[in-house]
Every structure is written in C-alpha cells, then in structure tokens.
Design a protein that fits this description.
Helix content is 34%, strand content 15%. The protein is an alpha/beta fold and 269 residues long. A five-stranded parallel sheet has the order 5-4-3-10-9. A three-stranded parallel sheet has the order 6-7-8. It has a two-stranded antiparallel sheet with strand order 1-2.
C-alpha cells in the first residue's frame, strides 16, 4: 500500500499552469507501457495529475472499435495533455492540436513539439515558433518542448506560451541533465513555469532537475521502460518531492576544502 499522506511540515507549494492548480509536479506520458492497466497503475504510483497523450499514436476516441486510453485515465480524474509527438512540420502540429480539441470537447491545453529530424528528435525551433504563434492565436494554451537555449525560452514565454519545456538530454536517452547551466539560466529568467522534458533516466536525474529550480518534470520512457514501471513511477514521485524541497531549503555552497561538521576551533587541549 503506497503512503499517500504528506508530512504536515511541508509548505503548500502548488504548480499553476494556465490558471489551474496542481499538487503534483511530476507529469507523465502514457506510451510504451505493456497495456492500459499498467499505464493506469504507473500513473497512480507517480501521483501524476497531468498526463500527456500522443494524439497520432494513442486512441482517445478516434477508433471507436478499439480500447480508449480515456477508459483508464478519465478526464474527470486527470488533466489530459494532448501532444504533437511525431510531427515534423508546423502545419502537422497545428492540425494535430485542432484534432485533439475536437476529440476532447474543446480542450485547449496542449503540448507542442515539432521535431527536426528522426535521429536526434531535437526540436525544429523555427517551426516550433511558427506553430506556437499560430496555436496561441487560435486560442490554445501551449506548453512547448524546446531546446536549452535561454533566448528561445524567453521568446516562447513572451509570445504567450503557458509553460516552457526545455530538454535535459535527447528524448528517451536516459542521459540525465546534461545542460545544468543552461537550465539554470532559463529558470532564473522565467516568467512562466519551466518543466524539464526529455532525458531523465532515473530518480536522481529528476531530483537534479528540481534542485536546479525547475517547476516540474515530464517523463515517459524512464518509467515505462524500467524493469518495474510502477515501482519506478513511485521512485520518481519521491525524487520530485525531495528535489523540490531541497531547492526550497537552499543547499550549502560548494567548497574546495573540508569544513568540519564539528568545528576544531576551541577544542579542549
């Protein structure tokens, strides 16, 4: 039985995105699981409230004869975050978001990603900017996957994206946070929530992202690809909480030499 309670001394620390408040800072994907039941179990273990769905790969009603993801992750329990995974042009990404809005009865919160090539899955920034601008004008609340360039992150926020989601490492690589100083700069300049998206491999990676000051982390492969996905989901949940609290608590500065826990000055001779 997983302990769902929080210690009483933890501060109230909600995540706010597009006017909505969430208690979990861990967002999870819904792909790559063995079946829909494992998807449900891992999502519950992660404590996720926002779940992202690849509209081009996942049935949420497009195919009435097939099981729908919404049967195990209903919209009245979870915020469904349609994403544009697999889109390589701005026009494809825009159409995918419009399809999601139709399928989800006017839902307007989306995760935008426009990929540059199939080998690296790095974002095509020019196309991302184009699609983001068009979607915002069309009334969407856009959470946007981008590279780790602080200038681009600032521009996406200024144009009206509700969250900016820089990669920590290539999608699905599990390499962890490879660009700490860029992420720190993005966080320091942020006017909207910053969530690491892509690259997390294990719990310590998630904790690092939160210790850098990120508002949250989105992950899929790190959980779904683990030997025991449900256990990893719970580990990620704890890591996100620990990393956030450590960031708020304020770490000690790094020093080159030792600093004794029990000072040696004033010792009795």
């Amino acid at each position: 039985m997983l302990d769902q309670t929080e210690p009483s001394y933890l501060p109230e620390d909600p995540l706010e995105i597009a006017g909505n408040t969430y208690h979990s800072r861990l967002l999870t994907g819904t792909g790559k699981y063995r079946d829909l039941q494992e998807t449900r179990d891992a999502t519950a273990a992660a404590g996720a409230q926002i779940v992202t769905v690849a509209i081009r790969r996942t049935n949420i009603g497009q195919n009435p004869e097939e099981p729908s993801l919404l049967e195990v992750l209903p919209p009245d329990e979870f915020t469904i975050l349609p994403n544009t995974a697999g889109c390589f042009t701005a026009s494809d990404a825009i159409r995918t978001c419009q399809l999601a809005r139709e399928l989800l009865d006017g839902h307007k919160l989306v995760k935008l990603e426009v990929l540059g090539d199939k080998k690296t899955l790095f974002p095509d920034i020019t196309a991302t900017l184009e699609a983001a601008e068009a979607l915002i004008k069309d009334g969407f609340d856009v959470m946007v996957y981008t590279n780790d360039d602080p200038i681009i992150a600032r521009r996406l926020a200024e144009m009206g994206c509700v969250a900016v989601m820089p990669l920590a490492a290539p999608i699905g690589s599990g390499l962890g946070v490879q660009n700490r100083y860029n992420i720190m700069t993005i966080v320091e300049e942020a006017t909207v929530p910053i969530l690491v998206d892509a690259g997390v491999g294990t719990a310590s990676d998630a904790a690092v992202a939160m210790e850098l000051g990120c508002d949250g982390v989105l992950m899929n492969t790190a959980i779904a690809g683990a030997k025991h996905p449900v256990a990893m989901a719970y580990a990620m949940r704890l890591a996100i909480q620990a990393g956030r609290l450590a960031y708020q608590a304020g770490r000690i500065p790094r020093k080159r030499f030792a600093s004794a826990s029990s000072p040696i000055e004033g010792l009795i001779e």
